Amino acid sequence: MTTSFSNAFWLPFTPQRQFRGQPLLFTAAEGMHYTTSTGERMLDAMAGLWCVNAGHGQPRIAAAIAEVAGRLDFVSSFRMSHPQAFELADRLAALAPEGIDHVFFTNSGSEAVDTALKIARAYHVARGDARRVKLVGRAKGYHGMGFGGLSVAGIARHKRDFGPLLADTAHLPLPYDGRSKFSRGLPQTGAEYADALEQLFLVHDPATVAAVIVEPVTGSGGVYPPPVGYLQRLRELCTKHGILLVFDEVITGFGRVGAPFAAQAFDVTPDLITCAKGMTNGTVPMGAVLASRQVYDAFMTGAPDVIELFHGYTYSAHPLACAAALATLDVHEELGLAARTARIAPTWESAAHDLRSAPHIADIRNVGLLGAIDLQPRAGAVGARGNEVQLACQQAGVLVRNSGDTLVLSPPLVISEAQVAQVFDAIRGALARVG
Ligand SMILES: Cc1ncc(COP(=O)(O)O)c(C=O)c1O
């Protein structure tokens, strides 16, 4: 297979010119491994990009996609649809926490987030409370790359170059400080960070706030699990003030933290859940907003022949995506992936924290099959060590991801105990070599 490539492809989130000097191309994937264009196998400790939860190349998913591609290539869901879309919505509603039982389909996590934010505002309009427009996000939050998601996100560099974002936003602090360093699983301290919402109410009248959106576990921002009791407190405050709580579960959905959704793992039910990624095991782009009965019902007033929500995408509930998602749910059930994740998480946790004695370690965090390792930045070269460690892991045959000097890990949920050891051995070796 050729390894040459043109200059036309403008890669996302990639230094274009450096990449062309050191291209990393994959030509096949199966189970826990990628195969590179030069024939090496690489253990995938990122599940692609937090999405291939059931492992690569699941034959049942591939067969389902192929079947529908040959039978029903496309149908719009504007005033029509197809049976598998309804079947999938029912299956997702059954998987979601009690009371979350409606599904709006999108094609990505970014679209799911923007859809959830629009549903939140329109919900208040439908209830006759159009003052509620403000949207509250959180520091280090990642909610995709649309202007809505970017506005509630909390990563300054992502926002810097794109001009004015939504005006009516505010942000909570990250519920993390030195006390929670090296916590195993959820930090025991920090629930009181939820009370920062009350502080925001000093500036923003709570009667003008439409929604609070958080990732139950901050993901791309560096894998920060929520302190014990934090999400409960946030839920209580939102309920008290009539504000919708949105969990962005684009990463945490579909078994990643040992339950179908983090809402169930942490026993807190939001009003809206956004999901994508693991929904189709990464095979076909798809996302969704899962909505509570209360939210949905608020729209179902007025004349029955009038559209209740003026929103949707050409590819909402695309037949290939629906087939892929249904097959993904079958595979999850067959392999019991959420329960399997809960079982292997303690092995993952101790392997991660065994790295504490390695050089340059500043913090280690974990929950379910997520992990982050903060490295001490090198003086005058922030991010260089993280980048070099990531490259050294690749050379050792393990694909990890770095965000600056933080390594983030999110392997397929089918990872074996031996492969867990391989991931952390590769990182230990890389840390020893990189200096
Ligand atoms: C929590 C969260 N929300 C939204 C998104 C955006 O998803 P997408 O890249 O599919 O648009 C991501 C992507 O990483 C994410 O992690």
Structural write-up:
The strands form 3 sheets. Strands 4-10-9-8-7-5-6 form a 7-stranded mixed sheet, sandwiched between helices. The two termini are 36 Å apart. Strand 7 (209-214), helix 9 (230-240) and strand 8 form a beta-alpha-beta unit. It is built from 15 helices and 15 strands. Helix content is 36%, strand content 17%. It has 435 residues and is an alpha/beta fold. Helix 3 runs antiparallel to helix 12 (319-335), helix 5 crosses helix 11 (293-299) and helix 13 (337-353) packs parallel to helix 15 (417-434). The chain has helices at 16-21, 47-50, 59-69, 83-95, 109-126, 147-152, 156-159, 196-203, 230-240, 262-265, 293-299, 319-335, 337-353, 384-395, 417-434; strands spanning 26-30, 33-36, 41-44, 100-106, 134-138, 169-172, 209-214, 244-248, 272-275, 287-292, 361-367, 370-375, 398-399, 401-403, 406-409. The structure holds pyridoxal-5'-phosphate. Residues 108-110, 113, 142-144, 215, 219-220, 248, 250-251, 276 line the site of pyridoxal-5'-phosphate.
Report the sheet-strand fraction.
15-25%
Number of strands: 15
The average pLDDT value, as a whole number, equals 97
Q: What helical percentage do the residues reach?
A: 25-40%
Largest sheet: 7 strands, mixed
Strand arrangement within the widest β-sheet reads 4-10-9-8-7-5-6
Q: Give the N-to-C terminal Cα separation.
A: 36 Å
- Overall 3D form: globular
> Could you spell the SSE succession in H and E letters?
HEEEHHHEHEHHEHEHEHEEHHHEEHEEEH
Judged by helices, strands and strand pairing, the structural class is alpha/beta
- State the low-pLDDT regions, or none: none
Evaluate the radius of gyration. 21 Å
Bound molecules: pyridoxal-5'-phosphate
Count of alpha and pi helical runs? 15
